[in-house]
Specification:
0% strand; 62 residues; mainly alpha; 1 helix
Length: 62
Amino acid sequence: MSLGVPDSGKILLLVKKLRFLIKVNISIHEILINFQDNWQDLIHLGRSQAKGDRAKFDAGAG
């Protein structure tokens, strides 16, 4: 069975759609990874700040 021109066009469109969806998926994944990294940095910063405040309080500066 040989592919006619319309069938080839449909396959090409399908391939383009799949490539687009893969790119979108990768972009969303990168955004989520960056968000997670930033969130972890904020948590770490908050914990460091809390430890520093606690040390000042324990030393009598609070």
